[in-house]
Specification:
The protein has 333 residues and is an alpha/beta fold. The chain has 2 domains: 5-182; 201-242 and 270-329, no CATH class. It contains 13 helices and 9 strands. The strands form 3 sheets. The chain has a 5-stranded parallel beta sheet. Strands 6-9 form a two-stranded antiparallel ribbon. The chain has a two-stranded antiparallel ribbon with strand order 7-8. A hairpin with a 5-residue loop joins strand 7 and strand 8. Helix 1 (17-31) packs across helix 5 (133-159). The longest helix is centred in the middle third of the chain and has 27 residues, at 133-159. The chain binds iron/sulfur cluster (2 copies). One iron/sulfur cluster is lined by residues 194, 199-205, 222, 241, 243, 245-246. Residues 192, 208-209, 211, 213, 230-231, 234-237, 288 line the site of one iron/sulfur cluster (SF4).
């Protein structure tokens, strides 16, 4: 069993020289680290189930670091959706805003969670946090040390009979493939990613989407069943989700692209309402109508798929939260 940490670097969709330069520098410096095995793959969001890079990711048995140009939450749940599962490793290389928001976000994670998580950690690192390759190399060295310590403890526990040897996973990638195969071309994709740390399985998204994107699995849990049915550039259902659990990783607004958004002042805020300009459900319905019309179908407005929330919005008396929302909308955020 090789005792190396696998690092996977997911390239940006953009070929911007600054991004390519940072990717190359990180990969080059990591190649010189004796405890690290590094591979480069195309943009994680774009690789489909049959791509060699996906088969490679699935074959990695132990802890792993995934560097990408995506918010860590988006990358984590994207991997989980593709059966690359693990506990969310704690990354210390964050920008200052993220550091503040992580605590709030943890408090608001009341979702159904992921199923069948193996005993290993996946660390998702956002390459937009710093433009210095040294910062990433240093953080990955720290993670490698942390993983090594945890694996050694597991081995001792298995020798003493406290845990099964099966729980001590191999620490490197099992599938040996050339860099060229890993970088086979991809096409740009667009589909929702569900954060199961937040998703409560309320099914509002499946009711709302009229394009057959969502389905349910064998345990009646919500599932993105036909991702490529989703309409490019449209984030409509993310505005409808009451938990802000639906991520469109390439969308321009951070809160829809997977930035950590939690409570403000200890209260859980309907951020879709706030960032959608006060009427996110109407905006979502209008975005959905645009796509229906493009498909040669009839617009449905607010008549289909959103009755529960719409009724709630009309019937509920204004409360303290509404007052807070009004005051937040009055200030620049
Ligand atoms: S609307 Fe949001 S919380 Fe409800 S099932 Fe869909 S993703 Fe989950
Ligand atoms: S963005 Fe539109 S098409 Fe895509 S999943 Fe959401 S509602 Fe369906």
């Amino acid at each position: 069993m090789a005792d190396k940490l696998t690092v996977v670097l997911s390239q940006s969709q953009s070929k911007h020289p600054a991004r390519r330069g940072l990717e190359e520098n990180i990969a080059t410096y990591l190649l010189m680290e004796k405890d690290i095995e590094v591979s480069v793959i195309p943009n994680l969001y774009d690789i489909d189930e049959k791509h060699t890079a996906m088969l490679f990711l699935r074959s990695i048995g132990g802890d792993m670091v995934v560097l990408s140009w995506l918010y860590p939450r988006a990358a984590h749940w994207m991997l989980d959706r593709s059966e690359v599962k693990g506990h969310m490793g704690e990354v210390l290389l964050l920008d200052e805003e993220d550091e503040d928001e992580v605590d709030d976000a943890e408090e608001t994670n009341n979702g159904i969670g992921a199923a069948d998580i193996p005993d290993r950690h996946i660390y998702t690192v956002d390459m937009r946090v710093s433009d210095r390759h040294e910062d990433y190399v240093e953080e990955i060295r720290r993670i490698a040390k942390e993983c090594k310590g945890r694996n050694q403890a597991k081995k001792v526990a298995s020798q003493l009979g406290f845990v099964s040897i099966d729980s001590v996973l191999p620490t490197n990638g099992a599938l040996k493939v050339g860099q060229e195969e890993l970088m086979a071309p991809t096409r740009r994709r667009w589909y929702p990613v569900i954060d199961f740390g937040r998703c409560t399985n309320c099914m509002e998204c499946i009711d709302f989407c009229l394009f057959g994107v969502y389905g349910v699995d064998s345990m009646d849990r919500i599932l993105v069943e036909n991702p490529d049915n989703c309409k490019k550039g449209c984030p409509a259902c993310s505005r409808v989700c009451p938990e802000q659990a639906i991520i469109f990783p390439e969308y321009k607004s951070p809160e829809i692209a997977g930035a950590n958004v939690g409570g403000i002042g200890g209260l859980k805020i309907d951020l879709t309402k706030l960032f959608g300009g006060g009427d996110a459900i109407s905006i979502a319905a209008s975005e959905r109508d645009t796509e229906l019309i493009r498909d040669g179908r009839e617009a449905v407005g607010l008549a289909v798929g959103i009755p529960r929330r719409q009724e709630g919005l009309e019937a509920e008396p204004r409360d303290e939260l509404d007052a807070l929302m009004d005051s937040l909308e009055d200030v620049e955020i």
